[in-house]
Design a protein that fits this description.
Pfam family, one: DUF4234
Structural class: mainly alpha
Distance between the termini: 10 Å
Domain DUF4234: 4-69
Organism: Claveliimonas bilis
Order of helices and strands: HHHHHH
InterPro entries: DUF4234
Protein name: DUF4234 domain-containing protein
Number of domains: 1
Strand content: under 5%
């Protein structure tokens, strides 16, 4: 797991007109695969491909599942419905920030 500066990730996402968000999505997905392979084992490249092919619909499912995948951390609640609602409202970047915050909190420095 890798700690990331959330502010810089948001700035990169804005500067690259959202392209960096695909990389960030990939990295979050790979972290989920490492920490909870029973809950999530889809490859990051396939997640991005499915999201593009389905015009973003798969992204809703992915955000929902990430809310459940990171429950292995202590004190992390099931945020799947929150992530789904934010994704439907096109606020995926908020989801990524919340997920990255959980990753940063439980990743040793």
């Amino acid at each position: 797991m890798q700690r990331r500066n959330i502010g810089l990730c948001v700035v990169f996402a804005i500067i690259t007109c959202g392209i960096y968000m695909f990389y960030w999505m990939y990295q979050i997905n790979e972290t989920a695969r490492r920490i909870n392979p029973q809950r999530w084992n889809t490859d990051g490249g396939m997640v991005i491909l499915f999201t593009i092919i389905t015009c973003g619909i798969y992204g809703y499912y992915w955000n929902y599942q990430m809310g459940k995948a990171f429950q292995v951390f202590p004190d992390v609640t099931d945020n799947s419905i929150l992530y789904l609602i934010l994704s439907i409202l096109n606020l995926d970047i908020v989801n990524y920030c919340l997920i990255q915050n959980d990753i940063n909190r439980y990743t040793p420095e």
